[in-house]
Amino acid sequence: MPRPHEPRRPMGHRTADAEPVEGYARLDHDRDPRFSRRRFLRTSALALAGATMYACTGGGRKVAVSPPSPTASVTAADTRWPIKRVIYLMLENRSFDNLFGRFPGANGTTVGVKWGQEVPLRPAPHWLPGDIPHDRAAHLNNVNGGTYDGFAIGQFGDPWAYTTFDEEKVPIYWSWARDYVLCDNFFASVGGPSYPNHFFFVAGQAGGVLDNPENIETRVEEDGTRFKSWGCDAVGENVFVLVKDERGNLTKHDTCFDFRTVPEQLEGAGVSWAYYSPSPGQPGYFWNALNGIAGVYHTDLWRPERIRPVDRLVEDVRAGRLPAVTWVVPRFELSDHPPQSTCFAQNWTADVVNAVMESEGWEHTAIFLTWDEWGGFYDHVPPPEVDDLGFGFRVPTLVISPYAKKGYVDDAVGEFSSPLRFIEDNWGLPYLTDRIANAHNFEHVFDFSRGPRTDVRPARRIGTCYGSPWDYPGDDYPGWPEGTDPDESHFVKGGP
User: Residue 139 belongs to a domain with what CATH number?
Assistant: First the structure.
């Protein structure tokens, strides 16, 4: 039975006269004279309305951590749909137009608008010379008062923000879009950087957080391990993050929050789960959102059975050690985060997805693959304003499953709470937040009226990646653990 307040949603490919989803409204660009008719047609979008963001207070209780527990297998709990295993994987820093602007049948573009002038989107390279601004201030600059033409900022925003890939450079992502579901109306939950969006990844809320933490210093362990953290284990003088409270006031908050997460819900319901991320000392550890949640980090939920090293992910898949629900965050080098290569990100993600497809239980699996925010790259669809935090610009999202409709372009408005809605509906959990309750649950992109598809086609790795995945960030981090080094035959120095 549908839950109360479940929104209606479009059920097929985009049509010009599609009715708005209940609780959604079209953005009105006629109010701004700088929008031409051509741009209006190119940027019309559905907007979600009425979602409420809860501001949460933080604190940090410490509880003794229990010894490691045996690895959990997939739960036998009843599910609403035939899906018994969900994998929610979040890569980094790409807008929809950057990766899929040229994809046939999707709402992409090859033309951007820079300071009021139309400009072609240049071919995107695998590597970038540096990062593009993508904090809260950059989001507001990109929006530029409603003209959505302010992406050429910072040292590398011009020209690199105005680039788009073709199939030759991102064949793996495009092959999944052709074989499964591509969402072209899916937005980052927050108009800002990684930190708040990773909270939405696990909780459907961010405690009012708008930006990344300030004044974080490198932590040095007794064994010499060095790393930075954005969570309860962050160190530094006057570490804080800005949050908006329920009255709209900006206040400083520490980096340890008390709001609940979906993993905690699953734990309480007896549904197995795990969170894979870089380990302390590896680049990307600071993306681990659960180490910023006191109810996880300072309890026995922070144990090897639940918090696992991402370098072990493929091994665990092949050994049948994945739980019912799995969250995945990659190492920085393999995450798609500029300046790192999309080639290495694709190959690593393909290794993960291929291993899942070849594993026992694939016929009951759904993979949600997304990117945590736009990374400063141009996107032509204005993000809906649902509350003080978001949405942010569109991000690519793929749904990969033997029950997923083949070659389906989904234009229902989604955000990072949508896969959480799927999880909660599938295992019969109450909605943790209003954002989750107002999100669609992806049921419309699956065909559960038939058995699982058998036309499985594992992605073919890109044969040669130029450069080295460990060139950046350099000597501040240790080398790859034994058995996890990328095969050196797959990369060469130099190149494009």
Answer: 3.40.720.10
Residue 2 covered by a domain: no
Residues 339-350 pLDDT 10s: 999 999 999 999
3-state secondary structure of 147: coil
pLDDT tens string 299-353:
999 999 999 999 999 999 999 999 999 999 999 999 999 999 999 999 999 999 9
Residue 6 lies in a domain: no
Establish if 395 belongs to a structural domain.
yes
Which one, of 325, 290, 285, lies nearest residue 427 by Cα?
325
pTM for the model stands at 0.82
Residue 217, C-beta contacts closer than 8 angstroms, at least 6 positions apart: 228, 235, 236, 237
How many CB atoms neighbour CB 496 within 10 A? Answer: 10
Instruction: Please tell me whether residue 382 adopts helix, strand or coil conformation.
Output: coil
- CB of 287 closer than 8 Å to CB of 194: yes
| Nearest Cα residue to 383 out of 408, 417, 414, 410 | 414
Number of domains in the chain: 1
State whether the Cα torsion 281-331-441-317 is positive or negative: negative
464 is a domain residue? yes
Boundaries of domain holding 460: 24-492
Separation between Cα atoms, residue 286 and residue 474, nearest integer Å: 17
